[in-house]
Structure prediction request, 332 residues.
Amino acid sequence: MKYKSVIVTAHGGPEVLQVVENELREPETGEARIRILAAPVCLPDVQSRYGQSPFPPKMPFTPGYAFIGEVDALGSHVSEVKVGDRVAALTAYGSYAEYIHWDADKLIPVPKIVDPAEAVTLILNYIVAYQTMHRSAKVKIGDTALIIGASGGIGTALMQLGQLMGLKMYGLASPEKHHVLSEYGVISIDYHTQNFVEVVREAEPDGLDAVFDGMGGDSFTRGFSLLRRGGVLVGYGNPLSVSGMLKLFGQMVLFNLLPNGKTAKLYGTGASYLNRKPFMEDWATLFELLEGGSIKPVIAEKFPILEAARANELLESGDVIGNVVLLAPELL
Prediction:
């Protein structure tokens, strides 16, 4: 039996994504074979395709940071899941495919009642938003916060979760996307024409409780300057290179040495490989919020899994609000 996947054979734009056919092997000991139902298209996928990563994958590789699917077959010595279970995983690579093999003990249980297109956004974008907000910044009801990059998949998740917490929020986005920010009660700032530091300082002279920065660069420094004493900045953007990562880490260390009572933190999903417990707890919470209708992921567009090139092209256009999702044909 054969299956198809999408691979990158050279660094470049969406045109380098190619569909290839592979032999579908049996799962090995401890593995589950999963038929993929949904995979998000996210910025790390794009960046890895261009080689913009501290630790870029070797060519050729299949992009895809996460998936939701159904267990199709099991290797020996697997007790964590059974055939037919709906599961998910945070993969970093490999999810732009019809099938994937994954360690059974690293799979995330997914309720069958939830829509896979919506639920797959929880595996990366919402877990980043939830953990930066609740585990890193530890926001409280009524806190003031700034979201740098508010209209994307993580930004819209932050806005929804912030609304649940009763936060007073400011968000950076281009003017054509401000209507979405308004839906969540977020005060919009046009980063093209407005100096967000000046705008926030005038509106919040005592400073902010939290800043969530997905853009990096000088926004990390500028965002930190807006915190009140006791405030927290959380950076979660990809530093793009080893030198960028070291620079960002150095900035964080320097900021935390300053005697101003402010804190800078860096967030990465790589921590899930070291300690899965908080991640499993938070994914379970997010699935409950989705089932109960407390959150509603913003889906900009859905594409068939093998049309990942079109989906990547849309994401790179900058016109996307929320999430772009790849789906198995029967879910379209």
Summary: The two ends are 24 Å apart (CA to CA). The mean pLDDT is 95. The CA atoms of residues 38 and 116 lie 6 Å apart.
